[in-house]
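Quick review question:
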């Protein structure tokens, strides 16, 4: 076995799997790679190959749009029910929050730096980020984070702890963030404002 060839195949196979490629023939794929590398005439013309790729991209976009629409609806349904819970307040933008502990200290402005402890979860409870688990609070400019945080932390005084329920459009939008936050995800954050810097 040629280990480099196998490793390249693993890498491409993983990408195809992540992309959700369906109706895939590893035999035809390997034949196409071999034909190109050996200088043989491919079984498809460049125009036919381009047409197949464009069709694949359109199908992928349609699948992603359908998946995104379903995720958006789940988040919107969750927030609609959550807004009815006792203690949940809703701002004009749609940000929802609960005061877990009131803070009597300074309130930040949108351009301040803040030091916070926080834990972020998907609405199914999956934790995707936590300064508590890292054992160290985070410091960041308030105008450099998602808009739900920028708005929400300005409602807090130093020493406060709030729970934010953030709609997708005030979070990471239709793109999501990395592998842990899917597109259109509504998010829940417990945030403790330690200090306005």
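Suggested answer, residue by residue:
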């Amino acid at each position: 076995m040629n280990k480099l060839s196998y490793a390249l195949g693993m890498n491409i196979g993983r990408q195809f799997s992540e992309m959700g490629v369906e109706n895939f023939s590893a035999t035809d794929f390997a034949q196409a790679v071999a034909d190109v590398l050996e200088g043989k005439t491919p079984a498809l013309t460049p125009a036919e190959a381009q047409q197949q790729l464009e069709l694949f991209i359109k199908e992928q976009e349609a699948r992603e749009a359908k998946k995104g629409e379903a995720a958006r609806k789940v988040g919107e349904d969750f927030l609609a029910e959550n807004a009815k819970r006792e203690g949940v307040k809703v701002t004009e933008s749609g940000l929802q929050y609960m005061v877990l502990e009131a803070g009597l200290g300074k309130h930040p402005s949108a351009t301040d730096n803040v030091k916070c402890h926080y834990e972020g979860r998907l609405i199914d409870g999956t934790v995707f980020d936590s300064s508590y688990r890292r054992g160290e609070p985070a410091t960041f400019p308030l105008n450099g984070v998602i808009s739900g945080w920028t708005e929400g932390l300005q409602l807090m005084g130093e020493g406060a702890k709030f729970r934010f329920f953030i709609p997708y459009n005030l979070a990471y939008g239709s793109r999501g963030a990395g592998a842990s936050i899917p597109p259109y995800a509504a998010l829940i954050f417990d945030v403790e404002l330690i200090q306005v810097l």
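Why it works: Residues 46-82 form the longest helix (37 residues). The mean pLDDT is 92.
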